[in-house]
Automatic annotation (TrEMBL):
It comes from the Bacteria. Residues 231-329 form the HTH araC/xylS-type domain. It comes from Luteolibacter luteus. InterPro entries: AraC-type_N, Homeodomain-like_sf, HTH_AraC. One of its GO terms (cellular component) is cytosol. This is AraC family transcriptional regulator. The lineage of its organism: Bacteria, Pseudomonadati, Verrucomicrobiota, Verrucomicrobiia, Verrucomicrobiales. Keywords: DNA-binding, Transcription, Transcription regulation. PROSITE patterns: HTH_ARAC_FAMILY_2 (PS01124). Signal peptide: none annotated. PANTHER family: HTH-TYPE TRANSCRIPTIONAL REGULATOR GADX, HTH-TYPE TRANSCRIPTIONAL REGULATOR VQSM. One of its GO terms (molecular function) is transcription cis-regulatory region binding.
Length: 337
């Protein structure tokens, strides 16, 4: 089971600020607390991430901002995963590395499927309940192409770009990607010649790749250990919360582990049982409010609160607003998407 948590880099916030976007305005429009970007490590659920990217387009007033954000030319601004991709031996090697290491930061991967002379590359969001924001898709696919072009000195040219959305901005998209666009497709993807994936990268740097790769591999293993135990606990909590608040002893018994062992495993993962209870309640609260017509009092019961007031106080602490206001705002945003 995978945690629904995306790590948001401060590099993205710096780029947004440089492009003139107001971060407070962005958070307001996304329906997130004003202190959201002030966390030491910024994590967002898939729903929160999608809200942020929809807000990025609206606050910027620039439908092409995703292309700009996906076309970073300065290596010093690259995330270590992006550096590892550029230092890879081939385009295929780069895609494999990114697909593996993206699991360090988010419930997302890059899927590439080969059928004869064509290979399709698309981003998969494991926890998505609705369509990916257009700006996020533009950024992600533009970044993949930027990596291929940088590594091969511009030798990579896609066969076509496939997008689920209706036809819009065709000229801009075709100029940026250098290929034709197929709208109203069944997926959001770039399609390349399969032979292009074997093109060697002129930016290949084995020493740098080894140094970065070792650190990423360590993080990857540690992340999977954390996900394993946290996922088991949260899955158990989601099944057990209604009408009561399960204890660590209850959860340990449910997953076939002694309370002491569970406590030790959580300590190794640097997470507490209370954090997992809070994370689980918050995820479920957002789900109930956004995707069902469950009354607020019933929501409090389903989350294991003794009374509605306790739920309201907790929700205000999480989201800096009331459950009713949050539900109204997010349903309005979903209606505009």
């Amino acid at each position: 089971m995978m945690n629904d948590r995306f790590r948001i880099s401060n590099l993205l916030l710096e780029r947004l600020a440089e492009l003139g976007l107001s971060l407070p305005a962005l958070l307001r429009l996304a329906g997130l607390p004003a202190t959201f970007f002030q966390q030491e490590k910024i994590y967002a659920t898939t729903t929160e991430l999608f809200s942020i990217w929809r807000a990025i387009e609206e606050v910027s007033g620039d439908p092409g901002i995703g292309l700009k954000l996906g076309n970073e030319a300065r290596m010093e601004r690259y995330h270590p995963i992006a550096v590892a991709a550029v230092c890879s031996r081939t385009f295929h090697d780069a895609l494999q590395r990114v697909s593996r290491y993206k699991q360090l930061t988010c419930p997302e991967t890059i899927q590439f499927t080969t059928s004869g002379e064509e290979t399709t590359v698309e981003f998969i969001y494991f926890e998505a309940d609705d369509n990916e924001p257009k700006t996020l898709i533009d950024m992600a696919l533009a970044w993949i192409l930027t990596t291929g072009r940088r590594g091969t000195n511009g030798q990579i040219i896609p066969l076509r770009l496939e997008l689920k959305r209706p036809a819009e901005r065709r000229e801009q998209l075709e100029a940026h990607f250098g290929c034709r666009v197929r709208f109203k497709a069944g997926r959001n993807a770039l399609v390349f010649l399969t032979s292009d994936l074997d093109r060697p990268f002129v930016t290949h740097n084995e020493e740098l790749l080894t140094a970065i790769g070792a650190q990423l591999e360590n993080e990857w293993q540690a992340r999977h250990n954390t996900i394993d135990i946290a996922g088991h606990v949260k899955g158990t909590l989601k099944r057990s919360l209604a009408g009561r608040r399960p204890t660590l002893q209850d959860v340990a018994r449910e997953i076939g582990m002694s309370p002491r062992t569970l406590q030790r495993r959580l300590g190794e993962a640097e997470i507490t049982f209370q954090q997992l209870v809070e994370d689980t309640r918050r995820e479920l609260a957002r789900h109930y409010l956004e995707h069902s017509s469950v009354e607020l009092n019933e929501t409090a019961f389903l989350l294991g609160y003794e009374d509605a007031n306790s739920f309201f106080r907790a929700f205000h602490r999480w989201e800096d607003t009331t459950p009713g206001e949050w539900r109204t705002r997010h349903r309005a945003l979903a209606g505009r998407a």
